[in-house]
Amino acid sequence: MRRSDFHYDLPPELIAQRPAAERAGARLMTLDGPNGAPRDLMFRDLPLLLRPDDLLVFNNTRVMRARLYGHKESGGRVEVLLERLLGPREALAHIRSSKSPRSGTCIRLAEGSPLEVMGREGALYRLRACEKDFDALMSAYGHLPLPPYIQRSDDEADESRYQTLFARREGAIAAPTAGLHFDEAMLNRLADMGIERAEVTLHVGAGTFQPVRTEDLDRHEMHSEWLEVSEEVCGQIARTRSRGGRVVAVGTTCVRSLETAAADGSLRPFRGESRLFIRPGYAFRVVDAMITNFHLPESTLLMLVAAFSGYDPIMNAYRHAISRRYRFFSYGDAMFLTGT
Question: What does this protein do (predicted)?
């Protein structure tokens, strides 16, 4: 298949600019039957789709206040997006400015706090915080890095609504958005049903928003993201399998985490980088069902869900979602999918 096979036309007004009034107040589409016919529900109906022996797997990453604004000593304005912290005072970052900064350039944040450009590593810049560490700088001056298709600045409401309730391991620059729909009432309902929870960590990077630039998917270089699947999670999945339950991944980040940990054919603890590119033809080893939001046209995430539930059912579901005025992307509505 080729990149253009995953194109669809989305009216811009369907891109959600803010979350639903309540976390569980989003809509939920599920694909029913052998042909994957769309069915329209609400997210609060999710318990109807789950079974007591199922295991829900969440991503517990926390979004950093990773967007920093400053200026060069020449006066030019600079926007810094921290991609990954390498230590208390070193980081890899994206930098937007009128001219690409050279090694040795000083960037001054609010109140003059300096960052030094140490050089480049591919598309990223290596930065050193000269006086305060990056945790202190983000706490004092950082902004939540809302996705590029949200056409507004972050505000106080985003501080809570762009984080999941189980976000505890800081390191992401984008939220695992399927998890944003879960509130305490929903989690309590699921617990009362006997549904177990597990947590993995995948620190979502800016690469999740990068377009596929090659028509030939064999030539696409997948971005790298750090993840961890613990021995405890592997044990929970084994017990779920033994009782006949399903592994339900909350979001594509959990899918990528679990399938990376099983890349050699059996699920094992994993900690490190993944460049796993899941597209039609991929054989899933761990995940039986998933909850996911709607994804960008021609994106690797759209390719992942098409691999999971079938190309034709997914593309038909997206056409249905557009016709029924679903809300798209990070703050939008959700789908519940089962594998082919």
Answer: Transfers and isomerizes the ribose moiety from AdoMet to the 7-aminomethyl group of 7-deazaguanine (preQ1-tRNA) to give epoxyqueuosine (oQ-tRNA).
